[in-house]
Amino acid sequence: MVAYPRNFVPGGTYFFTVVLENRRSSLLVDKIASLRLAFRVARAERPFKLDLIVILPDHLHAVMTLPDGDSDFSGRWRRIKTVFSRQVVAEAVPVSQNRRGEYALWQRRFWEHTVRDDTDFARHIDYIHYNPVKHGLIARVTDWLHSSFHRYVRNGLLPPDWGGTSVVADGAFGERLDRA
CA nearest 9: which of 124, 109, 113, 118? Predict the structure, then answer.
């Protein structure tokens, strides 16, 4: 397997795509309270700023900023995945285990992109908030509950009717385009 070079920038801002193993699952939205708990636990142990997020049934996109001098985003994602997996197993959700005895809930890897500048950040705001529309889950951005879009509206950063039918966020951003 080819080693994927990750870009570790202490205090950096990163865009992530994190995906469940079963792409037909709706576990992330079905167990949203468990996912929120996993983020709270990880953030309490190793602080980070969650700039943006959208949680879809089988994957999520997030932009995270790490503290100055810290570049360990992998450890944070490992902790989020572990806490969520243990939580849903404790709630009697059937989750298989791999040959190592690990829960086979998440894809082993995630996709990351270092946010380069304000323009790149703005592009990710559009992409993340528009993603539920792109996937055909809703017709209007405001109708998706599991998104930082609502925080952006509360803080006056976006209007409530943002993303009607005129905004199109392009780019795959780590999503497989060949899936069924």
Answer: 113
Q: Tokens representing 161?
A: 């009717």
What backbone phi and psi angles, to 5 degrees, belong to 56? -105, 175
Give the Cβ contact number of residue 51 at 10 Å.
19
Looking at the DSSP assignment, which residues form a beta bridge with residue 103?
Answer: 97
Is residue 62 domain-resident? yes
- Supply the pTM of this predicted model: 0.86
pLDDT of residue 163: 86
Residue 99's pLDDT band (cuts 50, 70, 90): confident
SS3 159: coil
Q: Look at the chain and report how many structural domains it folds into.
A: 1
- Residue 166's SS3 state is coil
